[in-house]
Amino acid sequence: MSEYQRGYIDRDFDAEPFASVVPAYSGRIYPRSQWRELLELQKKNKTSPLDHFLSGNCKVLDQKKTNYCWCAGVTGAVQVAYAIQGVDPAPHLSHTYPAALGKKFANRGGWGMEAVRYINEFGLPTVDHYPQGVISRSKTQGEAVKASAAKHSIVAFEEIESRNFDAAISALLCPISPSPVSCGFSWWGHLVFAAAAVYSNGQWGLEIVNSWSDKWKNNGRTQLFGSKAVAHEYIAVRAAEVTSDE
Amino acid sequence: MIDVTVEPQKPTTNLPALVLAALLAFVIWKSGAWDSLTPDKEREQLPGKVAGVLVIKSDAMTIDQAQVANSAVIDEICDQRGIAFRALWPEAGDLSNADEWVRQLHSFYSGDAPCLATIDAAGNRKRHELPTSISEFRRLVGAR
Questions:
Q1: Nearest-CA distance from B28 to chain A in Å?
Q2: Which domains does chain A have, with CATH numbers?
Q3: What is the pTM of this model?
Q4: B83 and chain A: CB distance < 8 Å anywhere?
């Protein structure tokens, strides 16, 4: 039994259809024949979301004992969207706040689009206003936490079709506007976000950032290949509002 | 009686001293020491040091421009020199909480995207074409 919590529940696309909450991904889907060249371009110029994750000093989130991976993965990608816009250091956001409010303080699993709805409704405070991994009704009260959450509530999300690995790689490799992508994996029962496309031994894969703190694997990151890199739900984070105190 | 046949004495020229003075002036000018002797008010008339850089992206960016606009390197260049940096799209959403300089540059130049806008400490704004290389970006923000 893993010591780590997960919490991704396969989204019911009949109940909540593709692109019904946010628009469909508007970027170009690049053919596989161009991926190697795009990857080289990205490495040369340091333009991948992972480059910004590292240079913007983004924090690896920690869901602790909660089942809120579905909100942590999306929130981690939002942090990178801030870093891409030059917010350095990127704000360390608490995914637990919108997840707890959305789930009415029940420690339950969910999917990425639920996180998008709750982030749009409640916002994302920084961890100094609401601790991550702690479900507390009293901590959601007060003007300071609400003000902090409101400052990180305007985020542009776009949805990639379920299991469309080529579109997810294209979003990460896009030379015009690369985006981090949240990935809900059925096989893992877990949602994380992808920060870069990777290529090794003739296979394409994803470098993912987990929400099990930076103590896990390679500073909180690992690479997934083959069928393990194909997600049931993908959400690209295109941009986030810049606020004055970041 | 005045002897008008005597030629008046010609003024003598101290040629070595003149050459020495000219040489000294040349050395001072060449060494750049003159700049430090220039009064401050004259130097203030030079363009101010860049205090903030806003990259305004657009779908019309070339691949080379996009590589600069999306590069983590330009963020680091600015960070190391204490220059505030932001990169936005023209449709940046609600910027009411953004820094004043970001709102100002965005409102002035978002219609001219893609571009790079700078502001100095005195509030002087300037629009540049979005650079196509990191070295060009360095030059525009005064980071050599």
A1: 43
A2: 32-240 (3.90.70.10)
A3: 0.86
A4: no
